[in-house]
Design a protein that fits this description.
alpha/beta, disordered N terminus, Rossmann fold, 9 strands, single chain, 7-stranded mixed beta sheet, about 290 residues
């Protein structure tokens, strides 16, 4: 149990309970591949989800001006630590992985050990609304890079998450992240089926993140709009879920599988209607 549990938001606690469930762990580890359980970047519409998902990690890493064996990275919402393993193996970086799901963290630790990377990656149970690390300085405290993939949406205190990121990032450091968002011109009410499905009252938007980041003092280096990849990804996961439904229903509550397919359909339809957004943000702390 995280020491932050008592003070984290209801939205984060809901997400924690969901990702700790046996059904969710089985679904994400098997359908998504168990390495990177985030939105992928597809070259071909039918390529494996795991390949497209790692392409997102590679693309995000290439956005960072400074990334090497001296880099200390904090991944907030680290899932199964697929990104952390890539960063540690490819660049030799040290990674602190912060994640709310103890079940995911157990699987992540096992995968880190199997990859021979346990000494490079430290996994901590906790919430990014109250990051359990010291405020950054020009000395030893703080991180050179913050990283997050499709996790911040689970907080209903997103400004606080960004503020915590700013607090623990060293001056001159970079924060690279993705998040499923609503479009800046999204009409009110049209995303309610998605919000109900994921137990949220709102989504962020590119404009929201840009404004909130600038108010905190971040420099917004770029936002690479890749909304088409959100559509591609949820469509691809839907196809795989439909393909393997009989096998999944032997391991997962059939109602969970049915609800997942309904939820994935909402995301695809919302994206095609122009109501959603997704891309890579790169921020810099002066």
């Amino acid at each position: 149990m995280s020491s932050n549990e008592a003070i984290q938001s209801a939205a984060v606690e809901t997400a924690r309970n969901y990702y700790n469930s046996e059904d969710a762990d089985t679904f994400y580890s098997q359908v998504w591949g168990g390495e990177d359980i985030h939105i992928g970047m597809y070259v071909n519409a039918d390529e494996p989800i795991s390949v497209a998902s790692q392409r997102t990690v590679i693309t995000m890493a290439e956005r960072l001006p400074q990334l090497d064996a001296n880099s200390h990275i904090l991944d907030i919402g680290s899932g199964y630590c697929g990104a952390a393993r890539y960063l540690a193996k490819t660049y030799g970086a040290s990674v602190s992985a912060l994640n709310l799901s103890e079940v995911e963290n157990q699987r992540a630790n096992a995968l880190n050990v199997a990859a021979g990377l346990a000494e490079k990656i430290t996994v901590t149970d906790g919430s990014f609304e109250q990051i359990p690390f010291a405020t950054a300085s020009t000395s030893e405290a703080g991180f050179d890079i913050l990283w997050s993939q499709d996790a911040i949406l689970h907080s209903d205190k997103r400004e606080q998450v960004l503020a915590e990121a700013f607090r623990v990032l060293k001056p001159g450091g970079y924060f690279v992240f993705t998040d499923p968002m609503q479009a800046d011109d999204c009409p009110a009410g049209v995303l309610q089926p998605i919000l109900d499905r994921i137990h949220l009252s709102s989504l962020g938007s590119p404009g929201f993140y840009r404004s909130a980041a600038e108010k905190l003092g971040f420099e917004v280096v770029e936002f690479d709009d890749q909304t088409n990849q959100l559509i591609n990804h949820y469509q691809r996961v839907l196809e795989e879920t439909e393909k393997f439904t009989p096998a999944l229903e032997q391991k997962i509550d059939p109602l969970y599988v049915a609800r997942m397919k309904t939820g994935l359909t909402y995301w695809v339809e919302g994206g095609r209607a122009g109501h959603l957004a997704w891309g890579i943000f790169l921020l810099r702390k002066p």
